[in-house]
Amino acid sequence: MSSQGSRGKGIGLSLAVGSALAFGGSGVAAKPLIEAGLDPLHVVWLRVTGAALVMLPLAVRHRTLVRSRPALLAGFGLLGVAGVQAFYFAAISRIPVGVALLVEYLAPALVLGWVRFVQRRPVTRAAALGVVLAVGGLACVVEIWAGLGFDALGLLLALAAACCQVGYFVLSDQGSDCGDDVPDPLGVIAYGLLVGAVVLTVVARPWGMDWSVLAHTAGMNGSEVPAWLLLAWIVLLATVVAYVTGVVSVRRLSPQVAGVVACLEAVIATVLAWVLLGEHLSTPQIAGGAVVLLGAFIAQSSAPAKGSPGPVASGGPERELSARGTAA
Predict the structure, then answer these.
(1) Which pLDDT score, from 0 to 100, does residue 317 have?
(2) 133 lies in which domain range?
């Protein structure tokens, strides 16, 4: 692998970890708002709508995307923004949060399954092992054994969130090998957030929200923090920065590798909750976090450079999948 390729891959990995860090912080900021009286879906709506407003100038700048990539914009907004979050919140209303999170983070395995069984392309054994380790470690992080009250509809909703997350990683990779016709990822994010905000407005019905909560403070591990500051954290860091770094990292790595690294979100969220909310980690959670990190490292280090003719853990062939998947 050339030094330039190695550097690009290293940057992509750093961006993917940064995205996981940003996404992982959303729960720490959102939980005090929910405990202060906001409905979870209202917090999601505030998050997406606020980010859409921040990114609006970019949407105007890239308005040609509406004509050239309507399917991509609609798919990203429906799947990567509204779908993942709406289905996840619906799932945790019926099944334990840990179970729902574990099912949602089956997305990396589903991406590999799509490449292997739908595209009929080989994947490296190391990449598959990395996914297995990441998912197994995640089961320890979320302590799945602590709650096994399964509900069939709840599990289906969580699986739907995982499928939407697969769509997010695949659509983020859309057109990266299409020469001058490559859509700008910032424009895609901006319009995806706008589409997501519209969809979530119908689902969350924000006209019934208690807006007065945002004018007061929310408790965070014994400290009072302005609610507006937590909202700014969710909008700017946990959404705008998270989506931008996530999409750019997929372009430098691949949907599969970025998906595995994204599993770190659960580990990061748990650590931040330990530090900022006083929710302590157990020994199995610490061990599980180490396994997730190991799985992500194995999958990332086994990925060949884009265009490599060998079995894939990443890059190259999924561009065809992306193009076909958004053609309808």
Answers:
(1) 28
(2) 3-325
Distance CA 53, CA 106 (A): 31
Q: Residues with Cβ < 8 Å from 100, sequence gap 6 or more?
A: 88, 91, 92, 154, 157, 158, 161
Give the chain's domain count: 1
Return the structure tokens found at 103: 């099912």
170 near 83, Cβ under 8 Å?
Answer: no
CA–CA separation, 96 vs 147, rounded Å? 6
Residue 173 token pair? 């990779």
CA dihedral (273, 248, 134, 294) positive or negative: negative
Contact 231, 54 (CB under 8 A): no
Q: Assign residue 266 a region (left: φ > 0; alpha: ψ between -120 and 50; beta: otherwise).
A: alpha
Here the tokens at position 6 are: 């190695």
Phi-psi region of 120 (alpha: psi -120 to 50; beta: other; left: phi over 0): left
Q: Where are the alpha helices (DSSP H) in the chain?
A: 3-24, 26-35, 40-54, 56-61, 65-68, 70-75, 84-92, 97-104, 107-113, 125-141, 152-172, 185-204, 227-232, 242-252, 255-262, 264-277, 283-301, 318-325
Half-sphere exposure of 319 (CA within 13 A, CB side): 14
pLDDT tens string 194-251? 999 999 999 889 999 999 999 999 988 888 999 999 999 999 998 999 888 887 787 7
Angle at which helix 264-277 crosses helix 3-24, to 10 degrees, equals 50
Residues in the chain with pLDDT < 70? 1-8, 92-93, 96-99, 105, 108, 119, 142, 145-150, 168-182, 254-260, 262-263, 296-297, 299-328
Q: Supply the DSSP string of 95-155, one letter for each residue.
A: S-HHHHHHHHTTHHHHHHHIIIIIS---B-HHHHHHHHHHHHHHHHHTTGGG-----HHHH
Length of the chain: 328
- Give first-to-last CA distance, the chain, whole Å: 36
